[in-house]
Amino acid sequence: MADTMQFDLVSPERRLASLAVTAVQIPAMEGDLTAMAGHAPLITTLRPGVLRVSGPKGDAAYVVTGGFAQITTDATSVLAEQAMPLAEVKAGDIDKLVQAAEAAAAKSAPELRAGADKLVADLMALRAAVA
Amino acid sequence: MPNLKDLKNRIGSVKNTRKITKAMQMVAAAKLRRAQDAAEAARPYAERFNAVLGGLAASVGGSDTAPRLLAGSGAEKVHLLVVMTAERGLCGGFNSSIVKLARAHIETLRAQGKTIKIMTVGKKGREQMRRDYGQYFIGHVDLSDVKRVGYVNAQDITRDVLARFDGNEFDVATLFYSTFQSVIAQTPTAQQIIPAKFAPVAEGTASLFDYEPDEEAILADLLPRGVATQVFAALLENAASEQGARMSAMDNATRNAGDMIERLTIIYNRSRQAAITKELIEIISGAEAL
Predict the structure, then answer these.
(1) Average pLDDT over chain A, rounded to an integer
(2) Residue B277 forms part of a structural domain
(3) CATH architecture, range A5-86
(4) Interchain contact, B212 vs A11, CB within 8 Å
(5) I need a labelling partner for B246 at 20 to 30 A (CA). Which of A7, B60, B81, B208 fits?
(6) Position B51 in a domain
(7) Is residue B58 part of a domain?
(8) pLDDT, tens only, B181-224
């Protein structure tokens, strides 16, 4: 079995990364997961968080705000709503997202409240990771 | 015959016009390149997204619990038309051809007795449609301050459309925009975005995957984003088409101005020559008379 797999990170506006990696750590909706070559095919949605990849050419980290990941045995594609290299993200940017999410949570219907609150919590955690 | 001074002024002003159209053409060419690059860069995302969504939709779509965005609201009474045009003119038939397609669509729907609502993106289309269909307008998105259309713009439009759908304001939504084929060919296109339609995928590709959370939850999460992706793709296509249309329109204008200058210069030279000949004849015949 090959020890690397193809990794693609695309946002609606551009392709951020396309390279061979050994492992991808994904902030999935129901908890972080790490995908390596030979992983069972999986499609999962993302929560806001930090995506880390490690490969023969070194490691990289990206901030994603949502989207989904498609994992097959030999490739992982992450389609992020917004994605940026971790180093380029400023805490202020996340603060804005947190505020928007809080405002949305305050207005949301009771049955959607839990999801909106979770989004705020995820963003807060992301904010802590960035700062 | 116009006098020489007038002709000279005329030639001068046409020359200025030619300079302007030439400059506009070159600006449009540069912007077109950028718009094409942006459209190119957005393609991988859209392709993968639609592939995954298509697979999901195929496996879940048949069930009774399919999300409303996919299954529709059960009626086909109220149609929302999202007409996307440019913010500026001077781009040939670009805006008119989109409006023309929308107009044809509206007339068919009217004949079928459907209710029509129109949302416009871009000032030019709104102006053209205001007189006949002003009473159907329910919203307008102004992009004149936007230098480069981004995904954010598409998200804003989508949010508005989805909020209206959730509020039961319409049953079917259709996008009108222009697909970019080449600098000389842009095709006005109508695309239904709600209920969502996907190209059929090959059997069995979807069932290979595990889903986390379950298929329906993912689908419910992805469908709104799918709409945003389609809107974004349409915005990008439109931006590229607009610049392409403007480029060829300005190229034509530049060439026309050149032809006009040539014609005017010939008339100018002929009348100058005629004036000289006339003076000579006067002098000679004056001398002979003595």
Answers:
(1) 86
(2) no
(3) Sandwich (2.60)
(4) no
(5) B81
(6) yes
(7) yes
(8) 888 889 999 988 888 877 665 555 545 788 878 877 888 888 88
Q: What is the rounded distance in angstroms from the CA atom of residue A48 to the CA atom of residue A63? A: 8
Residues of chain B found within 8 Å of residue A11, distances taken between Cβ atoms: 45, 151
Is B65 inside any structural domain? Answer: yes
Angle (deg, nearest 10), helices B215-289 and B4-60: 170
Nearest chain A residue (CA) to B218: A45
Compare CB distances from A68 to B44, B150, B222 and report the shortest one's residue.
B222
Is B218 close to A43, i.e. CB distance below 8 A?
Answer: yes
Q: Which of B209, B214, B215, B232 to probe by mutation at the A interface, max A CB count within 10 Å?
A: B209
Residues of B marked as catalytic: 91
Based on the structure, what is the number of domains in chain B?
Answer: 1
B137-161 mean pLDDT: 88
Residue contact B218–A67, C-beta within 8 A: no
Is there a contact between A13 and B154 if contact means CB atoms under 8 Å apart? no
Which residues does chain B have within 8 Å of residue A44's beta carbon, measured at their own beta carbons?
211-213, 218
Q: Which one of A13, A29, A81 has the shortest CB-CB distance to B213?
A: A29
* ipTM of this complex prediction, to 2 decimal places: 0.82
Domain ranges of chain A: 5-86, 90-130
A64-82 b/e (C-beta count within 10 Å ≥ 16 → b): bbbbbbbbbeebbbbbbbb
Distance between alpha carbon B47 and the CA centroid of its chain, in Å?
A: 22
Over range B36-40, report the average pLDDT.
89
**Residue-range definition of the domain harbouring residue B128:** 43-247
| Average model confidence (pLDDT) across chain B | 88
Residue B143 is part of a domain; what is its CATH number? 3.40.1380.10
Q: Which of B103, B147, B149, B143 is nearest to B124 (CA)?
A: B143
In terms of Cα–Cα distance, which of B116, B91, B89, B95 is closest to B105? Answer: B116
pLDDT digits (tens, 9 = 90+) for A3-21: 889 999 998 888 888 989 9
